[in-house]
């Protein structure tokens, strides 16, 4: 391994003695009441340096003297540029103070004889300026210009700069444009990760050319939590360089990056589910591209292959023949010049409308770059490889900041493809004959449903009720869920190929009242006209901090959707697909019993691994609850308050909860229709609970992290209740 440094530091007393003692040369300190000979473009920097903060801005700290260059004039949406007069580089280093945003379009740039040699940004979003250093020894005696640029709109769309000076001593321990080079002879580069550390911005280079999108990787600074692989097999026999935008000289991780032909990790860690899908390693959120084709259910998903926190959005890929067992596949769609790969859908183009080939699998997804646009890619080998359309994006609209998550289906009545797209606080429908050219049809959402957060991940599809076709529109929302954070609302109505009109129902209606079912959509082309759904089993309120290590988050079990009347109005029921029953192994049958105040089932399973199902029927005459309990007293409690019409889940004492103040709510509520009988199915899989009442008329999905499996069941009642048909199944 060869290590190259663009910033080299005089470290230690002996080194310091050898450093030059020439006085520093101030290029600009911004202490004048004007920008003097600097060229000012746009409005962001005002007409003169600012005296600290600008009205509406947080307190600015860390600058020297009274003034600094501050591009917050006009707020974060203003844009502008400062260009210095030409100067001659006379020292080994240029030091400067910098703060503000980390965006690609807020930066300070050094141009030497007209050529850009450094482009640097704040390493954190901060109003406190930090020293950074450029190593310019190779450019001494040459003419240079500095540009300070703010071309970014939106949050943290500003830059702070002060005290630009030439010196023979670096003032920063931050190495800018640091390079690690390897002669590749193995399959992977293994990178040590510190989960709570800041992200390092990394590119891969060969022969001086960038060969990867930007990778944001939390390279270990003070400790190593786990390792992630970068697949470099295609570069065997070549020199490959990792270019870091910046690293600290004292960080422990970047120098430990190494080559390996294997990647080993603890797959079976404590909270890894046994029968739910979870990523092999790394992060997952929204399910994407769900389509059935050639005997396989394809599940693509938002995936970070370079860490267990959100970032680097790719489409991961898994397939199943039976909705029970999932086979891991290689990453399907990678980021490109248009941005990272956000959520979307996939269809089978049976009539070759796009011209990619009959029965091509076409993915429609959001490219999340400077703006959000819609792109397509196609596969002719059953989703194993994708080719991106060379004229992407196929749909854009600068009027929307949030413009994402296309869900597409073929509408037979109008002989066209229909796209449902999340457009900030509404869903906009588009039509296309060929998946490449789209026209707006209509917009839905104003004045109806919950608007407590951004609308996301729509899905429009038909269901049949009493022989009549009704249309259902799913809309995920974050925040704004009924119990805080993320949740999925839905609307029932009619769609004529252009416009969706909702029936008069007591909106908002929620698919799942638990805290951990979000961004779910349905499979296209599922056999037997089934409408099968899967959701992301987490909540943005705390998802980045749940106590798993090599992976983070899982999906719900697949569920079959139907329309039913819950006794008050029409609802979308979501019950486990029938295939889940085939996971049942050992069975413990409990005799019927009556609860008068309290009753305990001491042992659920002989060898309880934390993956099981409880099936029972309860006939209440009064309020009651039941709890799952382990030997340490940790418990998950389900309360049926018939008097108040509420089903309440309490996970405040369920196990580990101190990773987030937003996690351990004592009351996770759902509206309960009073009935003589409740058919209950409760599925537990180590760190998740999915409660289905009356075949999915009412559902609560909630994660929890007990220190050991719950293996007792305790009932409490305010009157007499009958509990019948109790079966406890081990699930594998």
From TrEMBL:
Membership in a protein family: Belongs to the glycosyl hydrolase 32 family.
Protein name in UniProt: Fructan beta-fructosidase
Source organism per UniProt: Dysgonomonas alginatilytica
Annotated Pfam families: DUF4980 (PF16352), Glyco_hydro_32C (PF08244), Glyco_hydro_32N (PF00251)
InterPro entries with a match to the protein in the record: ConA-like_dom_sf, DUF4980, Glyco_hydro_32, Glyco_hydro_32_C, Glyco_hydro_32_N, Glyco_hydro_beta-prop_sf
Keyword Hydrolase: yes
Residue intervals of the Glycosyl hydrolase family 32 N-terminal domain: 276-572
Gene Ontology BP term (one): sucrose catabolic process
Ranges for domain DUF4980: 185-275
Stored PANTHER family: EXOINULINASE INUD (AFU_ORTHOLOGUE AFUA_5G00480)
SMART domains assigned to the protein according to its UniProt record, in alphabetical order: Glyco_32
Keywords: Glycosidase, Hydrolase
Segments forming domain Glycosyl hydrolase family 32 C-terminal: 579-730
UniProt GO cellular component terms: cytoplasm
Database matches in CDD domains: GH32_Inu-like
Superkingdom: Bacteria
UniProt-recorded Gene Ontology molecular function terms: sucrose alpha-glucosidase activity
